[in-house]
Write a structure and sequence with these properties.
With 351 residues, the chain is mostly beta strands. 5% of the residues lie in helices and 64% in strands. Strands 4, 5, 6, 7, 8, 9, 10, 12, 13, 14, 15, 16 and 17 form a 13-stranded antiparallel β-sheet that branches. A two-stranded antiparallel sheet has the order 1-2. A two-stranded antiparallel ribbon has the order 3-11. A hairpin with a 2-residue loop joins strand 5 and strand 6.
Length: 351
């Protein structure tokens, strides 16, 4: 932008042209740097676990035996992350089904997409697990001590679709994406308070009851429940810290939580359906540490996502746990003409 300033004195008139640079970053460059002209390609190897805890609260004698803990493991997931400017895609390209005589077989699929800048970020994800084993089998199966074979439910499925919105209050000095997608690079340690909101839909179902035959009597009216569908929206707050040394080595710790209004649908094998509304609690803990250099990065990340779906006589807790090793490189690229036009729009500047 050009600004013309006209000055007048008694002897003469002169015009001075002053150039104002409107392309200055809107953040503190002493704290972090953005890489808008880099295509970032990364690969990851991860171990993932989905844990569903089911506990009846009915007061039966020996009902402690009916505390169930269903586990689905995906310990060999290979994927690719692609990031350009404000958009990221994550895809699990190879998931080796976990199979053993003791725990049965688990299959897993996932897809993630996120967009946004350093001020706010929208993360979307889809996850699907099929095939669970019950961790507490030894409490009710007398043969477990000799066989070591867990109760298995190969038809049990859990699928979830989630959108998570994050707003960072200290975005002028703090970069969350520097610790996870690495299209930013944090130079100095910084902290930010975070507002978080979730929208999600989760379904878990099986052909028969969730309760194994040996403990089904402890579940009362839920003994034949075989499907639970939950839709919810939540809002809450938390904080995120980037601890940085030598402008490259970093540790991020993020803790988020809030209330979660839920609409649930319980289905039973006899066709009975009940639809109820509840207020639940959700929590999200993330961590990442590694090296974020000028071109190359590597990191180890951990994600723990918890949601509670309790009611007076039955408690259910879903927990997703993921640990991954990632590495990648920033390739300098020229933005396509259509993307340059997009960068000059109001929509882009809002991201």
């Amino acid at each position: 932008m050009l600004l013309w300033v006209k000055t007048v004195d008694a002897q003469s008139q002169s015009e001075t042209k002053v150039t104002i640079d409107t392309n200055q970053p809107d953040y503190d460059t002493n704290y972090y740097r953005k890489y808008p002209d880099r295509l970032i390609v990364g690969f990851y190897q991860s171990a993932r676990n989905y844990d569903i805890a089911v506990k009846p609260i009915l007061g039966f004698a020996d009902s402690g035996k009916a505390t169930l803990d269903y586990i689905a493991e995906a310990n060999a997931v290979t994927g690719i992350d692609i990031t350009y400017d404000k958009f990221s895609v994550s895809l699990a390209v190879k998931s080796v089904p976990q199979s053993s005589p003791q725990k049965g077989k688990t299959t897993y699929n996932s897809l993630g997409f996120s967009f946004g800048g350093n001020k706010w970020l929208l993360e979307t994800s889809y996850r699907r697990y099929k095939g669970f084993y019950e961790l507490n089998t030894g409490k009710y199966d007398p043969d477990f001590k000799t066989t070591g074979i867990y109760y298995q439910n190969p038809d049990m499925l859990n699928a979830s679709l989630k959108a998570k919105f994050l707003y960072f209050f200290k975005h002028h000095k703090f970069s969350y994406k520097a610790a996870y997608s690495c299209n930013y690079r944090q130079y100095k340690s910084a902290f930010s308070w975070v507002f978080v909101s979730n929208m999600f839909y989760t379904t878990m179902n099986t052909n028969y009851s969730f309760a194994p035959p040996n403990v089904r009597k402890y579940f009362g009216q839920y003994e034949n429940m075989n499907e639970l569908n939950v839709a919810g929206i939540s809002g809450g707050f938390g904080g995120s810290l980037n601890f940085v040394i030598f402008k490259s080595l970093f540790l991020n710790l993020t803790l988020l939580g809030g209330l979660e209004p839920q609409q649930r649908s319980y289905r039973h094998t006899d066709g009975q359906i009940s639809k109820l509304g509840f207020i639940g609690i959700s929590g999200d803990f993330r961590s990442s540490f590694g090296y974020n250099g000028k071109r190359f990065y590597l990191m180890i990340t951990s994600l723990n996502d918890v949601s509670y779906m309790n009611r007076p006589q039955l408690n259910i807790r879903n927990k997703y746990v993921s640990g991954a090793f990632s590495f990648g490189y920033r390739f300098k690229v020229k933005a396509p003409d259509f993307y340059k036009k997009f960068q000059n729009t109001k929509i882009y500047n809002m991201l």
